[in-house]
Amino acid sequence: MFDEGDLGRGFLSVARRGWFAKGAVALALIGVASLLMLAPFGGGTTTQAACSTGIPGQGGDPNPNGPLRETQIGWAKLIDSVAVKRGLPGKATLVALMTALVESDLQNLTYGDSDSVGLFQQRPSAGWGTADQITKTPEYAINAFFGGKGPPSPPGLVDINGWPSMALGDAAQAVQVSAFPDRYAQRESEARDIAAAAGIDLTRAGNPYAGRADAPQGGSVVDGVQDDNCDQSGGLTAGKPVNGVWPEQTATIKDPTGTGGLVTPRTAAWVAEARKNLGALSMSCWDAHAWNPTSDHPRGKACDVMVGADARKSPPARTRGDQIANWAVKTAGQTGVHYVIWYGKIWSARRGTWIPYNGGGVYNPTDATGGHFDHVHVSLY
What keywords are assigned to this protein (predicted)? Predict the structure, then answer.
């Protein structure tokens, strides 16, 4: 498929530091184990961690039941009622729920870091209003998060140009300006569960800039599910840039997907890992691609993983494709993934984020195949 022109190889930077003797021994053992793990892929890399560790309330924690969950559902309903009243899309509600889960575990707290209070841990000293306004009038706090022409002064969601096309976690971070920006995307799955329990329609269309006097032109109405860029439960993991050196390889191994062509050792190793981690896959790697000779397929450096249907019309296909794409991104630092194309978007190791895919001048991005809505394309270095 399309080989993104601006993708370049990263270079591994090594920082030299002094270690105590015991630490050096431990690190040496870890390094040997890492080299053994990476050997089949023909290279070694360092990746930037996608998530900060050791932070309470991260995604993946057990979901609460009982009174806490009931409280969360109640606040979710209030947040959505404000969004509906303003005419905002369901996607705005989802961003707000993800944000409140990180900031307060979706509770109206009267305490927090420094002077932070409320559902979104808004700070009076930062101009979000008084502590009483934020905590005793939660509708005020919710409207403040959404933003618009009224007070307070910090920009809210609708004040962020282009927020509907951002990853959900990035949209939340644009409002919150947190020291831990990666935490928001981790709570998407829980936010969706709470929304479902609250009877909230996250696919609701609406005006993403409702309540803003100087809204940008274009895209006045969005569907709440068209631009998911989030975690594995219902969208795409943003990932992080991957730095590394991947030696050039030639296609010398018979394609394990049965095309009859040859693939690189790195591609063959990726196929084996994908099958081990993702189960049965309908996959094809080598292809002549006569209509696009610059593709990675005839060079044995790419694979297409089919999801069985146009994911725009099949939720199971969308879920499966998200799972495959997210795994490819998450493991790129170990497997040598160069870029991934799925569901109208492309992720590159150098950039580390998903952006809209335009077809590269070769494919029709609105077509099920051209836009990669029926398969995940993975290219390797």
Answer: Membrane, Transmembrane, Transmembrane helix
